[in-house]
């Protein structure tokens, strides 16, 4: 297959590792990590990259989006001529851990726990990701607004509080993948976390969601396949995460 990958550069090392091993022809384009600070702007940027891809005349079989829901940044995206494929993930934490099950296991009781990875240390102006906007602070942002529009303010606040409980935890997590562990960023992270008054914890990551996306192994339980003219919609649960807009 001939595939176009549009990805946040927080995954640049991991995606490059997978592309080098993929049987498919992959053209890749990265967005800057800092774009997550403005979810509306990120949505517009990704949509513009999708639109530009469809005007190249190249015979792509699909456009791959290496993003999660990302503070609602991917809600509303659509292609006109080509299918889109995107992981069913709230954000890059699930993608770096390799599954929603691992995210729930490690973050289910405290999904606002700050985390980091090789990409955050290399590409970000901050070493931790904590907010749905991608900034180093927990914010409600567009994700909360979407809940209000869907459920009303009172129910939305209840859902938000259940998904983002405040445990007063000083833990900060570094997700360490075997493919990049030789770079030594886990050690740097622990020092930065200690300087910030946090307890640095290391979790093993898994490249499988990135690899399967790039290799065309699109299990519908783990990826949303969006047909041409279809639109991504948020579900905001722990399982489906995103769906096709009716």
Topology:
Blueprint lengths: L1 E7 L3 H10 L3 E7 L7 H16 L7 E5 L17 E4 L4 H6 L2 H8 L7 E2 L1 H6 L17 H11 L1 H11 L7 E6 L8 H11 L3 E6 L3 H8 L7 E4 L5 E3 L7 E3 L2
Parallel strand pairs: 1-2, 1-3, 3-4, 5-6, 6-7
Antiparallel strand pairs: 4-8, 9-10
What features would you describe in this structure?
By secondary structure, this protein is an alpha/beta fold. It has 2 domains: 130 residues; 106 residues, no CATH class. It is built from 9 helices and 10 strands. It has a 5-stranded mixed beta sheet with strand order 2-1-3-4-8, with helices on both faces. Strands 5-6-7 form a 3-stranded parallel beta sheet. Strands 9-10 form a two-stranded antiparallel sheet. α1 packs across α9 and α6 crosses α7.
* Total discrete domains: 2
Order of helices and strands: EHEHEEHHEHHHEHEHEEE
Strand segment tally: 10
Helix content estimate: 25-40%
Structural class: alpha/beta
Provide the gyration radius in Å. Answer: 17 Å
Model regions low in confidence, pLDDT < 50 over at least 5 residues? 132-142
The backbone outline, from C-alpha atoms, is: globular
| Major sheet details | 5 strands, mixed
What structural keywords apply?
single chain, three-stranded parallel β-sheet, 9 helices, 246 residues, alpha/beta
Short description:
By secondary structure, this protein is α/β, with parallel strands linked by helices. The protein is about 35% helix and about 20% strand.
């Amino acid at each position: 297959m001939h595939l176009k990958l549009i990805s946040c550069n927080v995954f640049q090392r991991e995606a490059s590792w997978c592309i080098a091993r993929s049987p498919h022809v992959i053209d890749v384009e990265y967005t800057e990590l800092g774009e997550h600070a403005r979810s509306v702007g990120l949505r517009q940027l990704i949509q513009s990259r999708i639109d530009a891809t469809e005007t190249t005349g190249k015979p792509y079989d699909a456009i791959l989006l290496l993003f999660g829901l990302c503070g609602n940044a991917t809600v509303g995206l659509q292609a006109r001529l080509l299918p889109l494929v995107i992981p069913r993930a709230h954000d890059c934490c699930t993608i770096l851990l390799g599954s929603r099950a691992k995210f729930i296991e490690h973050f289910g009781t405290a999904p606002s726990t700050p985390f980091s990875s090789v990409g955050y240390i290399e590409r970000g102006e901050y070493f931790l990701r904590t907010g749905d906007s991608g900034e180093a602070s927990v914010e409600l942002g567009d994700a909360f607004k979407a809940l209000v529009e869907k459920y009303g303010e009172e129910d939305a606040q209840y859902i938000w509080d259940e998904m983002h409980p405040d445990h007063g935890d000083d833990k900060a997590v570094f997700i360490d993948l075997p493919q990049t562990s030789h770079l030594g960023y886990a050690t740097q992270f622990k020092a930065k976390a200690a300087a910030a008054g946090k307890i640095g914890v290391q979790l093993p990551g898994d490249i499988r969601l990135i690899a399967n996306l790039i290799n065309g192994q699109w299990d519908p339980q783990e990826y949303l396949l969006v047909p041409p003219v279809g639109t991504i919609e948020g579900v905001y649960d722990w399982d489906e995460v995103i769906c096709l807009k009716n």
